[in-house]
Design brief:
Distance between the termini: 47 Å
Largest sheet: 3 strands, antiparallel
Oligomer: single chain
Helix content: 40-55%
Radius of gyration: 16 Å
Strand content: 15-25%
Shape: elongated
Structural class: alpha+beta
């Protein structure tokens, strides 16, 4: 029973980490899109909006809107997880 509970807790924690990475990437993409709209550096604004743990290895592109890709942090050492990507653009009226 205890090993099954431990596995469930690790899976739940990893699911939270995936959600946090995706939410953070989306927030950074919106920050980059806002910066790009006012003529500032989209990449710099997006990188600053990312939490420190996700900045290293983040890929930020601003060719057609702003796309931010970050690696999902792994709770278990040696566990290779995929990256998540979020994108944002601002219309001429300021909406996303």
């Amino acid at each position: 029973m205890l090993p099954a509970l431990a596995v469930c807790l690790v899976l739940a924690g990893q699911t939270v980490a995936v959600g946090w990475a995706l939410w953070s990437a989306g927030n950074a993409a919106r920050a980059g899109a806002r910066a790009e709209k006012v003529g500032s550096s989209a990449e710099l604004a997006a990188r600053r909006a990312l939490p420190g743990a996700l900045r290293e290895g983040a890929v930020i592109r601003s060719d057609d809107g702003v796309r931010v890709r970050v690696r999902v942090p792994a709770l278990l050492p040696g566990l290779a997880l995929p990256s998540v990507t979020a994108a944002s653009t601002l219309d001429d009226d300021g909406g996303t």
